[in-house]
Design brief:
The structure is a single chain. This protein is an alpha/beta fold. The chain has one domain: TIM Barrel (Alpha-Beta Barrel). Helix content is about 50%, strand content about 10%. The chain contains 16 helices and eleven strands. The strands form three sheets. A six-stranded parallel beta sheet has the order 4-5-7-9-10-11. A three-stranded parallel beta sheet has the order 1-2-3, with no helix packed on it. α10 packs across α11. It starts with a helix and ends in a 9-residue tail after the last helix. The structure holds alpha-D-psicofuranose (PSV) and manganese (II) ion (2 copies). The site of one manganese (II) ion (MN) has 5 residues, from loops.
């Protein structure tokens, strides 16, 4: 399924006049404040977020899964779905694959398809949290941290295989997320588990191509509920430092204990030049993987404020691998991803509005009230007309959800793929 760009333009035409009015109003008021609108629009257009292959089907929970029908059941179909998202939003120009769920059969055909939809291959993700069919060893008690050498070796080899697959597609990063840990006190020796993980990661790192990054993701709990080997950003940073300069920490918004100051974490990692990737989602309680910005939009804005500061002031930190990491049970996954993409762009645009020079001055004056006013003034600005303009100029939809619905895309997918589709995923 491929969206015809003319159909997007047709849908846009009905809303062009009201968009123009809203845009003119925003552009005028922001210009009066000295904001360079065109630079912001260009930055929004350049900001591309990878869609994970596992978010395109209804995710479900361990209690059940309710299909949305017409979900993709092959890698080709997953890439086509990302193509739909990208055509509408113009901000989903990459896909992140999970191996072995997404092993390509025909590399050239997959690359051609992605190319035709203007989609790049972002970080590849390894999977040592599930046992695979025909695997000799089990990861029930851990993978890279396991006390048994043969199990560690199998997990190391899997990561090397993932690098080789990613290399053939043009990926430039390997993301390692480990479920390793323990469920009960005494089950594991913390030091041995950490040391094994460090040694295993180093063995993988030695096989990372020179123009690649190794992204090390952390998470405090789940699926293990007593301890997790790579539990927090400090542990991830220690491991990245041990591995070397191509290794970085990856921050997933859902992987923190309640009330953690994530904006401070990303800020310090950038200062140290060690923030490599970012997984967007939102949560109320834990790793809920909810739609980005649906629960804590102000926190997301504060995080973006630090990311923007880092992108402008920390040349020691590389470009980040941006990805949405969410899975859903009750929404059409494509609609949900459109909402997430919009929330990301919105937080980014608002962070770009923060007057950094004024903020610095207010900080030096210890004018706490003014500091807060500067941030909240940016946060309270309606930037949606800027986002719409950024999309429109690239051929995207003025209102992606509305266009998705008026083009009846889900029903076309159901007609094409049928009802009984099963997407590979969590
Ligand atoms: C784990 O909760 C996680 O967020 C990691 O990023 C994984 O790669 C992803 O989910 C899906 O496996
Ligand atoms: Mn993640
Ligand atoms: Mn997660």
């Amino acid at each position: 399924m491929k969206i015809n760009h003319h159909r997007i333009q047709d849908t846009n035409s009905k809303d062009l006049k009201s968009h123009q009015d809203h845009f003119d109003f925003s552009a005028n008021s922001l210009s009066k404040k000295g904001v360079d609108i065109n630079t912001i629009i260009k930055k929004l257009q350049d900001f591309q977020v990878a869609i994970p292959s596992w978010a395109l089907g209804a995710g479900g929970t361990r209690f059940g899964r309710f299909s949305f029908y017409g979900e993709p059941s092959s890698l080709e179909q997953k890439i086509e779905d990302v193509g739909v998202l990208h055509a509408l939003t113009q901000t989903a120009g990459a896909v992140s694959l999970h191996i072995p769920w997404d092993i390509p059969q025909d590399y050239n055909a997959i690359k051609d398809l992605a190319n035709s939809l203007d989609i790049k291959f972002d970080a590849v993700n390894s999977n040592t949290f599930q046992d695979q069919k025909k695997a000799k060893e089990s990861y029930k008690y851990g993978s890279l941290s396991n006390a048994t050498e043969a199990i560690r070796q199998q997990a190391i080899q899997h990561n090397i295989d993932v690098i080789n697959i990613g290399n053939k597609l043009g990926s430039k990063a390997l993301t390692v997320w480990l479920a390793d840990g323990s469920c009960f006190p005494g089950q594991n020796n913390f030091q041995t588990a950490f040391q094994n993980t460090q040694d295993s990661l180093k063995a993988i790192y030695n096989r990372v191509p020179s123009d690649w990054k190794l992204l090390i993701e952390y998470k405090p709990y789940e699926p293990n509920f007593y301890s997790t080997v790579i539990q927090d950003w400090g542990t991830s940073l220690m491991l990245a430092n041990e591995c070397g300069e191509k290794a970085y920490t990856l921050v997933d918004l859902g992987h923190h204990l309640p009330n953690s100051n994530i904006e401070q974490i990303v800020s310090i990692l950038q200062l140290k030049g060690k923030l490599g990737g970012f997984h967007f989602n939102d949560s109320k309680y834990g790793d809920d993987d909810l739609t980005v910005g649906s629960i804590k939009p102000y926190a997301l804005f504060l995080i973006f404020n630090e990311l923007v500061y880092g992108m402008e002031n920390n040349p020691q930190n590389p470009d980040l691998a941006w990805m949405i990491d969410a899975s859903h049970n009750v929404k059409d996954p494509l609609e949900d991803l459109i909402q997430s993409l919009e929330a990301i762009q919105e937080a980014y645009a608002k962070a770009l509005l923060v007057d950094q020079a004024q903020l610095k001055e207010a900080q030096l004056d210890n004018d706490v009230v003014k500091c807060q006013e500067i941030l909240q003034d940016a946060f309270r600005t309606d930037v949606r007309p800027l986002l719409a303009k950024a999309r429109l100029d690239r051929g995207g939809a003025l209102n992606p959800i509305k266009t998705y619905r008026s083009l009846d895309i889900r029903n076309s997918l159901i007609k094409e793929r049928g009802k009984n589709t099963v997407a590979t995923g969590l």
